[in-house]
Amino acid sequence: MSNLDELKNDRRGLMVVLSSPSGAGKTTLTRRLLADNPNMAMSVSATTRSPRSGERDGIDYFFVTKERFAELETQGEFLEHAKVFDNFYATPRGPVEEALSRAQDVVFDIDWQGAQQLTQAAADDLVKIFILPPNMRELEQRLRTRAQDSDAVIAKRMSKSENEISHWAEYDYVIVNEDVETALAELQTIVAAERMRRRRQMWLGGFVKTLVNGG
Ligand SMILES: Nc1ncnc2c1ncn2[C@@H]1O[C@H](COP(=O)(O)OP(=O)(O)OP(=O)(O)O)[C@@H](O)[C@H]1O
Ligand SMILES: Nc1nc2c(ncn2[C@@H]2O[C@H](COP(=O)(O)O)[C@@H](O)[C@H]2O)c(=O)[nH]1
User: Could you tell me which residue ranges the Guanylate kinase-like domain spans (predicted)?
Assistant: First the structure.
């Protein structure tokens, strides 16, 4: 690694928030983004909803009872929390603060309520991205193809999708996820550009000082 590459490691981590109506592709896109970015961590949420088949505790979510959720909330262990589709969801504070202190970027798959709360708490570090489906028929089709939720749950999620979409203009970027590869490339472009923002490159001040002093 060159001297310059080492210096460039001194930057503030990003808090990348992805929101969308259920089924638009946040989980799919975040998994791909994380696979391509070793210096990026996923914020694993706590939830009171039951695990879907294949979901693992501590990896996809921390699955907790309503009582435990309330206890953690009272203890101030959450950065944000919200009720979504009859279940409670929250972002545990500790792992996010630890990852950011190691200059890692952190990705959040959370709804508009959570995004609003993080905006209050950490606006400077946030990059908020809204994912739209190409059309509502395709959105429903994706929920059905995922084959993880009952018809009633899918109907509930579809009925709430318009409300979630109504928050699209609160986000810095909007990606229409028609083709996964195109959407992923757009997401990568956003992350790369946000990492380059001057205020996030803490090494630049010292570098410029050395530069103008003939270094
Ligand atoms: N561009 C795409 N084209 C076709 N199918 C897609 C596309 N993106 C995602 N999918 C599929 O749509 C389904 C829903 O995607 P995913 O679970 O990533 O959505 P989500 O936004 O995370 O949903 P939720 O909010 O319910 O967690 C999955 O089966 C996924 O494979
Ligand atoms: N405000 C928060 N919203 C969250 C969090 N974790 C997930 N979510 C959102 O809930 C819905 C449903 O998720 P699912 O896994 O049951 O399909 C989805 O919109 C997620 O983005 C969280 O910690 N806080």
Answer: 13-192
Please give the domain boundaries of the chain with CATH numbers for all domains.
3-43+104-212 (3.40.50.300)
Mean pLDDT of the chain: 94
Which of 89, 137, 142, 154 gets mutated to test ligand 1 (max ligand atoms within 8 A of its CB)? 142
Atom of ligand 1 nearest to the CA of 134: 1
pTM, two decimals, is 0.95
Q: Whose CA is nearest to atom 10 of ligand 1?
A: 25
DSSP assignment of the chain equals --HHHHHHT--PPPEEEEE-STTSSHHHHHHHHHHH-TTEEE-PPEESSPPPTT--BTTTBEE--HHHHHHHHHTT-EEEEEEETTEEEEEEHHHHHHHHHTT-EEEEE--HHHHHHHHHHHGGGEEEEEEE-S-HHHHHHHHHHHT-S-HHHHHHHHHHHHHHHTTGGGSSEEEE-SSHHHHHHHHHHHHHHHHT-GGG-TTHHHHHHHHHTT-
Chain segment 75-101, per-residue pLDDT in tens: 999 999 999 988 999 999 999 999 988
